[in-house]
Amino acid sequence: QVQLVESGGGLVQPGGSLRLSCAASGSGFSISTMAWYRQAPGKQRELVAAIANSGTTNYADSVKGRFTISRDNARNTVYLRMNSLKPEDTAVYYCNSLTGARRNVNWGQGTQVTVSS
Protein backbone atom coordinates (compact mmCIF):
# COMPACT_ATOMS: atom_id res chain seq x y z
CA GLN A 1 0.00 0.00 0.00
CA VAL A 2 1.27 3.46 -0.88
CA GLN A 3 1.05 6.40 1.49
CA LEU A 4 1.59 9.95 0.27
CA VAL A 5 2.25 12.93 2.52
CA GLU A 6 2.24 16.42 1.02
CA SER A 7 3.80 19.45 2.69
CA GLY A 8 5.07 22.94 1.97
CA GLY A 9 1.86 24.86 1.35
CA GLY A 10 1.00 28.17 2.91
CA LEU A 11 -0.12 31.74 2.38
CA VAL A 12 1.89 33.71 -0.16
CA GLN A 13 1.46 37.04 -1.92
CA PRO A 14 0.90 37.22 -5.67
CA GLY A 15 4.22 36.87 -7.46
CA GLY A 16 5.67 34.81 -4.64
CA SER A 17 7.06 31.28 -4.62
CA LEU A 18 6.56 28.02 -2.77
CA ARG A 19 8.05 24.55 -2.97
CA LEU A 20 5.79 21.61 -2.26
CA SER A 21 7.08 18.18 -1.28
CA CYS A 22 5.43 14.78 -1.44
CA ALA A 23 6.95 11.89 0.47
CA ALA A 24 5.90 8.44 -0.65
CA SER A 25 6.12 5.19 1.26
CA GLY A 26 5.56 1.77 -0.20
CA SER A 27 6.91 0.07 -3.26
CA GLY A 28 6.95 1.17 -6.86
CA PHE A 29 7.74 4.85 -6.50
CA SER A 30 10.81 4.85 -8.69
CA ILE A 31 8.99 3.29 -11.64
CA SER A 32 5.79 5.29 -11.33
CA THR A 33 4.86 8.42 -13.19
CA MET A 34 4.10 10.85 -10.39
CA ALA A 35 1.95 13.94 -10.63
CA TRP A 36 0.69 16.95 -8.76
CA TYR A 37 -2.99 17.78 -8.81
CA ARG A 38 -4.97 20.64 -7.33
CA GLN A 39 -8.54 21.27 -6.35
CA ALA A 40 -9.93 24.74 -5.86
CA PRO A 41 -13.20 25.33 -3.96
CA GLY A 42 -16.18 24.37 -6.08
CA LYS A 43 -14.02 22.92 -8.85
CA GLN A 44 -12.92 19.47 -9.92
CA ARG A 45 -9.44 18.22 -9.17
CA GLU A 46 -7.10 18.94 -12.09
CA LEU A 47 -3.70 17.70 -13.18
CA VAL A 48 -1.01 20.34 -12.73
CA ALA A 49 2.23 18.56 -13.62
CA ALA A 50 3.57 15.05 -14.11
CA ILE A 51 7.01 13.46 -14.18
CA ALA A 52 7.88 10.03 -15.52
CA ASN A 53 10.57 7.82 -14.03
CA SER A 54 12.70 8.87 -17.00
CA GLY A 55 12.41 12.49 -15.92
CA THR A 56 10.13 13.53 -18.76
CA THR A 57 7.74 16.21 -17.58
CA ASN A 58 4.38 17.59 -18.64
CA TYR A 59 2.52 20.65 -17.41
CA ALA A 60 -0.94 22.11 -17.60
CA ASP A 61 -0.98 25.18 -19.86
CA SER A 62 -1.96 27.36 -16.92
CA VAL A 63 1.31 26.68 -15.08
CA LYS A 64 3.83 26.28 -17.90
CA GLY A 65 6.87 28.43 -17.37
CA ARG A 66 5.99 29.05 -13.72
CA PHE A 67 5.95 25.60 -12.07
CA THR A 68 8.66 22.93 -12.11
CA ILE A 69 8.13 19.32 -11.07
CA SER A 70 11.07 17.18 -10.01
CA ARG A 71 11.70 13.93 -8.20
CA ASP A 72 14.31 12.27 -6.01
CA ASN A 73 13.91 8.52 -6.33
CA ALA A 74 16.47 7.87 -3.60
CA ARG A 75 14.24 9.77 -1.18
CA ASN A 76 10.92 8.61 -2.67
CA THR A 77 9.97 12.26 -2.94
CA VAL A 78 8.45 14.45 -5.65
CA TYR A 79 8.59 18.24 -5.57
CA LEU A 80 6.70 21.11 -7.15
CA ARG A 81 8.45 24.44 -7.34
CA MET A 82 5.90 27.20 -7.92
CA ASN A 83 7.02 30.66 -9.00
CA SER A 84 5.11 33.80 -10.00
CA LEU A 85 2.08 32.57 -8.09
CA LYS A 86 -1.33 33.99 -8.95
CA PRO A 87 -4.55 34.12 -6.93
CA GLU A 88 -6.01 31.54 -9.31
CA ASP A 89 -3.36 29.06 -8.11
CA THR A 90 -5.13 28.94 -4.76
CA ALA A 91 -6.16 25.34 -4.12
CA VAL A 92 -5.41 22.21 -2.15
CA TYR A 93 -2.49 20.48 -3.84
CA TYR A 94 -2.18 16.69 -3.91
CA CYS A 95 0.35 14.29 -5.33
CA ASN A 96 -0.32 10.81 -6.63
CA SER A 97 0.85 8.40 -9.26
CA LEU A 98 -1.08 8.56 -12.52
CA THR A 99 -2.27 5.02 -11.87
CA GLY A 100 -3.42 5.85 -8.35
CA ALA A 101 -5.25 8.90 -9.60
CA ARG A 102 -7.05 6.93 -12.32
CA ARG A 103 -8.09 4.36 -9.73
CA ASN A 104 -8.94 7.10 -7.22
CA VAL A 105 -6.78 5.54 -4.52
CA ASN A 106 -3.81 6.53 -2.35
CA TRP A 107 -4.75 10.21 -2.06
CA GLY A 108 -3.06 12.01 0.82
CA GLN A 109 -4.41 14.88 2.88
CA GLY A 110 -3.09 17.50 0.48
CA THR A 111 -1.48 20.83 1.30
CA GLN A 112 -3.27 24.17 1.09
CA VAL A 113 -1.81 26.91 -1.09
CA THR A 114 -3.37 30.34 -0.77
CA VAL A 115 -2.22 33.21 -2.96
CA SER A 116 -3.55 36.50 -1.67
CA SER A 117 -2.41 39.99 -0.82
Task: Explain how this protein is built.
The chain is mainly β. It is 5% helix and 47% strand. The chain is built from 1 helix and 10 strands, in the order βββββββββαβ. A hairpin with a 5-residue loop joins strand 5 and strand 6. The chain is globular and about 40 Å long.
Taking the sheet with the most strands, its summary is:
6 strands, mixed
Integer average pLDDT: 95
Strand content range: over 45%
Low-confidence stretches: none
Distance between the termini: 40 Å
**Outline, from the CA principal axes?**
globular
Instruction: Give the radius of gyration.
Output: 13 Å
The beta-strand count equals: 10
Spatial strand arrangement across the major sheet: 2-10-9-4-5-6
Structural class: mainly beta
- List the secondary-structure elements in sequence, H or E: EEEEEEEEEHE
Name the helicity range.
under 10%
**Count the helices. How many?**
1
What is shown here, in short?
This protein is mainly beta.
Topology record:
Layout: E1 3-7, E2 10-12, E3 18-25, E4 34-39, E5 46-51, E6 57-59, E7 67-72, E8 77-82, E9 91-97, H1 98-103, E10 111-115
Parallel strand pairs: 2-10
Antiparallel strand pairs: 1-3, 3-8, 4-5, 4-9, 5-6, 7-8, 9-10
Question: Which key features would you list for this structure?
Answer:
117 residues, mainly beta, 6-stranded mixed sheet, 4-stranded antiparallel sheet, 1 helix, 10 strands, 47% strand, globular
